[in-house]
């Protein structure tokens, strides 16, 4: 740093007192330019353009800008596997199943299907135990998760539990409770 | 390299580059080389379109309590009333027809507003207005069909709670 300043000071002194030997060498080594106060930006040209051209250029730039914030930039633990989206997924699966079954139930007489509770019970009862447990788990976990997590969101709406540590801790409690609850529904009910 | 020779060195590097086209587009293309973020085609955004200029004021939708705080409070009341209605059949073993019908109706409203929220979140009005309209009316139709089906199930069959209980114990 000090050596550089010394060099700069020497050059300034030179600029003040021109000397044939030093001035020639300064030009040769290409260090005279830094003393200049104007900046050169070779390779970058500017153009005078009209207002309408500027507007269309701006529009073209806006079309090319990236979409932000994009889903891919976030931590997957918070977006794809976070409680928030899992609550929406499980709710969508449960309600979607209800809608699909209800529509099929209404269409059943015209299509010759049998979706009355008696035939459903008979069909489900005829399944092997592994299939029963599997299907029950597929229904029970989304239900348990949506109930527990949905209740947590209702508590959020009261303004409770927003501390960062509480949020992280309750996410794990909710996951654990939903798994235990689903197993309880499947195995003991 | 904070030295007095710095700018001269930079000038040499710049001079070594091939001379670029004078047009502005060419300069923009060169600047694009500095964008080093990897391109991911996960959920690619729809093509963007330009409306108006950058100096236009943001459009403010007309305020409507039925789309705002009332809607929010109504959603929460429905969700909260589902808590006792969900716990009751586990505590009592089953539900009487009135409570079962109440549970079905509340679940239907909860599902309807939930699907509405999903459509509003992911199908923006300003970008895909026709898809938005089609989905909202499709949802309305689906909810009406499901409401009719639930009525049929409640009146002609054993009721939703009892049916789930029987299937579960089959």
UniProtKB/TrEMBL annotation, chain A:
Its main location: membrane. It is found in: Membrane. The keyword Lyase does not apply. Keywords: Heme, Iron, Membrane, Metal-binding, Transmembrane, Transmembrane helix. The chain crosses the membrane at residues 85-107, 172-188. It comes from the Eukaryota. InterPro entries: SQR/QFR_C/D, Succ_DH_cytb556, SuccDH_FuR_B_TM-su. The keyword Signal does not apply. This is Uncharacterized protein.
Automatic annotation (TrEMBL), chain B:
It is a multi-pass membrane protein. Coiled coil: none annotated. SUPFAM superfamilies: Fumarate reductase respiratory complex transmembrane subunits. Keywords: Membrane, Mitochondrion, Mitochondrion inner membrane, Transit peptide, Transmembrane, Transmembrane helix, Transport. Transmembrane segments: none annotated. The keyword Ubl conjugation does not apply. It is found in: Mitochondrion inner membrane. InterPro entries: CybS (IPR007992), SQR/QFR_C/D (IPR034804). Its main location: mitochondrion. Belongs to the CybS family. This is Succinate dehydrogenase [ubiquinone] cytochrome b small subunit. It comes from Remersonia thermophila.
């Amino acid at each position: 740093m000090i050596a550089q300043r010394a060099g700069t000071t020497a050059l300034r002194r030179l600029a003040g007192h021109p000397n044939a030997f030093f001035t020639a060498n300064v030009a040769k080594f290409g260090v005279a330019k830094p003393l200049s106060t104007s900046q050169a930006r070779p390779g970058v040209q500017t153009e005078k353009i009209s207002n309408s051209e500027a507007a269309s250029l701006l529009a073209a730039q806006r079309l090319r800008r990236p979409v932000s914030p994009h889903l891919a930039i976030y931590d997957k633990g918070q977006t794809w596997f976070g409680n928030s989206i899992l609550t929406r997924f499980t709710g969508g699966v449960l309600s979607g199943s209800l809608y699909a079954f209800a529509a099929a139930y209404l269409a059943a007489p015209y299509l010759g299907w049998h979706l009355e509770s008696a035939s459903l019970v008979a069909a489900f009862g005829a399944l092997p135990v592994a299939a029963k447990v599997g299907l029950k788990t597929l229904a029970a976990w989304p239900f348990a998760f949506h109930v527990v997590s949905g209740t947590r969101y209702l508590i959020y709406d009261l303004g409770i539990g927003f501390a960062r540590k509480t949020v992280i801790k309750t996410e794990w409690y909710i996951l654990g409770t939903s798994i235990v609850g689903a197993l309880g529904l499947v195995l003991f009910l | 390299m904070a030295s007095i020779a710095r700018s001269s060195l930079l000038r040499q590097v710049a001079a070594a580059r091939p001379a670029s086209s004078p047009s502005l587009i060419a300069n923009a293309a060169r600047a694009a080389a500095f964008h080093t973020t990897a391109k991911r085609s996960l959920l690619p955004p729809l093509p963007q379109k330009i409306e108006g200029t950058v100096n236009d004021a943001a459009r403010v939708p007309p305020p409507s309590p039925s789309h705002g705080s009332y809607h929010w409070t109504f959603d929460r009341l429905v969700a909260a009333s589902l808590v006792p209605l969900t716990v009751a059949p586990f505590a009592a073993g089953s539900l009487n027809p009135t409570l079962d019908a109440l549970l079905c109706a509340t679940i239907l409203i909860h599902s309807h507003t939930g699907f509405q929220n999903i459509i509003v979140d992911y199908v923006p009005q300003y970008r895909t207005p026709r898809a938005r309209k089609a989905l909202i009316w499709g949802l309305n139709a689906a909810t009406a069909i499901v409401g009719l089906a639930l009525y049929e199930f409640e009146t002609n069959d054993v009721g939703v709670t009892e049916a789930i209980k029987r299937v579960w114990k089959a």
